[in-house]
């Protein structure tokens, strides 16, 4: 079971006079500096890394039903704090975390003796802050209508961010669901594609000084999911709340809270290289589990007929084939997708669960989240949207031995929708079920907050490779974007690794794959998801050489360490991940040209390794090598190709 060792919290009270401003908080290593002040237009902050400005003066404050707490505030006092905590993640990109940060809690007073506290924590790679609103005992509730929070990027910064979708657009009016393409090195002053800002996480390049990633964590049923609004001509991005039309207009766009009201954390990760961005654990450093796991949940790999064979595969015989494939590959799970209740039936689902169990394979079943907030016709419907229906269904699922659920089509970030997520996670834990969500929002610390939550789509995922040739043509390019953006702060159910030349059952039609086999194998390591749904098909087992099958049989989905090695968005990406004593190095080429890559792999210095590489035909070959004592290694990536290096 995951265990956390309580952090050490030291507080030193400063003098409660105006002269105490500005408050300066530095990281433990002294490289990051945050300055909080209270000018005539309200409290604001700046952020520097290595004496270079990464955020220019940016606003702070809350706008609420009790008043506007973003200006006309009086400084009261501040307390300096320190955090020093060890904790374990049971299904993360790392397993053991040592979180150290310096901080401060700055208290201001506004109208009617209401106090606004702004808490900052600054580690060696992350800045985080949140608000706490308190007042007289007679004030028991508040609506947070919005935040004055802004992020003021330097003029020369450029963006790698994905636009927010308009509500009730896309497939059967199911958006927004975080499935839009990324900008690429665009000016910070550019308007978004839809005119309503951008989703988290948001990556920026600060000219030659480095990178910063903005996101949030700790969002639960007491708040809304936020985003970045449109930037102005000075590159200032406001923090924005949900759009009115999200979730078919159900609920307000504000957060209704009891007093004292505490907001989620806003996070800023900084680095002169992309290493802090890739390796950050800030999403988990700032949250705690909301309940204990009812059991030790098993993570792992899953086969999945729908992704290539589509709806016609949702039948009893095809599911037997995918269960057999999972068993042959030593995979832990099979996902049975939409329409199973109609096309297979509940009685035969029970038989499939028993058949899979005899082979050591667990079953995950798909559900529509819907009550009435989208037009998606897929069933089962009306089983996850209310507690009585949900708990009755989950009791049946537990009784027949189902291991987890994939719940789809949420369509927004309003408080009511965040409440639905939390209710599904909590009820599922009572019945020993894991939860994957699709058509969904970004997880915000949920892997630690809700121990049976596994992964979320929230990305322009692999289903688009099947639907659109253009998506498949850009697959390699996007694989050099996602490890530095979406996948940095949360698990990502992209569903990788396709070995069919054409993405269809018979391979006589369908989209045509441009990436190499080794590229595809590398994405199984490059993309992090505790349950990884693979795009493999039964024919792949007979077509691929034994050494490829052995790699798939042993490929982990949760990790003890994750390291950035090399790469930049749009060019190439090289990441290293470790499970127990085995290192896996994954490299992908985002361009349609051959490249020679020089990397340093200190963890492999002087060690023998197994290298999986591409031939000119695009299939995978294996060779043995020894890394030099200085850890330097040079390899070639073929166009839209990849490489995997392991120490096993």
Could you explain the architecture of this structure?
The chain is of the alpha+beta class and 648 residues long. The protein is 19% helix and 34% strand. It has 16 helices and 38 strands. Strand 26, helix 7 (387-400) and strand 27 (404-408) form a beta-alpha-beta unit. The radius of gyration is 24 Å and the shape is globular. Residues 299-459 form the Glycosyl-hydrolase 97 catalytic domain. InterPro entries: Aldolase_TIM, GH, GH-type_carb-bd, GH97_C, GH97_catalytic, GH97_N, Glyco_hydro_b, Glycosyl_hydrolase_97. Residues 1-19 form the signal peptide.
Task: Please give a quick description of this structure.
About 20% of the residues lie in helices and about 35% in strands. The protein is of the alpha+beta class. It starts with a strand and ends with a strand.
State the main characteristics.
disordered N terminus; alpha+beta; 648 residues; 16 helices; 7-stranded parallel beta sheet; 34% strand; 12-stranded antiparallel beta sheet; single chain
């Amino acid at each position: 079971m995951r265990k956390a060792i309580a952090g050490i919290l030291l507080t030193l009270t400063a003098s409660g006079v105006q002269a105490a401003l500005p408050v300066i908080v530095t990281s433990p290593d002294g490289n990051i500096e945050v300055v909080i002040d209270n000018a005539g237009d309200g409290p604001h902050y700046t952020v520097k890394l290595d004496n270079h400005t990464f955020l220019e003066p940016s606003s702070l404050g809350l706008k609420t039903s009790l008043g506007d707490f973003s200006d006309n505030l009086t400084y009261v006092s501040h307390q300096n704090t320190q955090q020093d905590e060890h904790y374990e993640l049971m299904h993360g990109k790392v397993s053991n975390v040592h979180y150290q940060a310096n901080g401060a809690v700055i208290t201001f007073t506004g109208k009617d003796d209401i106090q606004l506290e702004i808490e900052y924590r600054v580690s060696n790679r992350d800045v985080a802050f949140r608000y706490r609103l308190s007042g007289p005992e007679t004030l028991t509730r508040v609506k947070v209508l919005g935040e004055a929070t802004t992020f003021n990027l330097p003029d020369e910064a450029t963006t790698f961010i994905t636009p927010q979708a308009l509500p009730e657009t896309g497939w059967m009016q199911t958006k927004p669901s975080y499935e839009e393409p990324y900008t690429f090195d665009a000016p910070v002053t550019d308007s978004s594609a839809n005119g309503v800002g951008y989703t988290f996480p948001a990556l920026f390049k600060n000219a030659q000084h480095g990178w910063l990633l903005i996101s949030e964590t700790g969002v639960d049923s007491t708040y809304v999911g936020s985003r970045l609004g449109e930037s102005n001509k000075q590159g200032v991005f406001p923090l924005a709340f949900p759009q009115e039309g999200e979730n078919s207009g159900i609920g307000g766009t504000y957060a209704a809270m009891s007093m004292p009201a505490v907001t989620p954390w806003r996070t800023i990760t900084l680095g002169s290289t992309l290493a802090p961005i890739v390796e950050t654990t800030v999403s988990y450093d700032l949250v705690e589990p909301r309940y204990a796991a009812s059991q030790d949940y098993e993570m792992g790999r899953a086969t999945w007929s729908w992704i290539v064979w589509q709806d016609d595969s949702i039948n009893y015989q095809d599911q037997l084939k995918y269960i057999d494939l999972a068993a042959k590959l030593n995979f832990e799970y099979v996902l049975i997708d939409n329409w199973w209740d109609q096309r297979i039936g509940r009685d035969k689902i029970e038989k499939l669960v028993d058949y899979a169990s005899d082979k050591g394979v667990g079953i995950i079943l798909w559900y529509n989240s819907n009550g009435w907030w989208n037009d998606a016709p897929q069933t089962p419907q009306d089983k996850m949207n209310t507690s009585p229906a949900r708990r009755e269904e989950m009791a049946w699922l537990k009784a027949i031995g189902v291991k987890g659920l994939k719940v789809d089509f949420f369509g927004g970030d309003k408080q009511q929708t965040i409440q639905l997520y939390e209710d599904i996670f909590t009820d599922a834990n009572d019945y020993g079920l894991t939860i994957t969500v699709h058509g969904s929002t970004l997880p915000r610390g949920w892997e630690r907050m809700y121990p049976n939550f596994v992964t979320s789509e929230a990305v322009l995922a692999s289903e688009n490779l099947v639907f659109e040739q253009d998506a498949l043509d850009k697959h390699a390019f996007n694989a050099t974007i996602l490890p530095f953006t979406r996948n940095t702060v949360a698990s990502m159910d992209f569903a990788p690794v396709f070995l069919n030349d054409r993405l269809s059952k018979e391979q006589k039609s369908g989209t045509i794959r441009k990436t190499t086999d080794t590229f595809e194998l590398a994405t199984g390591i490059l993309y992090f998801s505790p349950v990884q749904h693979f795009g493999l098909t039964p024919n792949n087992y007979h077509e691929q050489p034994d050494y490829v099958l052995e790699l798939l049989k042993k490929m982990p989905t949760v990790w003890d360490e994750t390291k950035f090695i090399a790469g930049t968005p749009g060019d190439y990406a090289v990441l290293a991940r470790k499970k127990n004593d085995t290192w896996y190095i994954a490299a992908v080429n985002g361009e349609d040209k051959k490249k020679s890559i020089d990397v340093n792999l200190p963890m492999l210095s002087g060690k023998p390794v197994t290298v999986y590489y591409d031939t000119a035909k695009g299939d995978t070959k294996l060779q043995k090598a020894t890394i030099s004592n200085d850890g330097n290694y040079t390899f070639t990536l073929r166009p839209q190709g990849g490489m995997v290096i392991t120490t096993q």
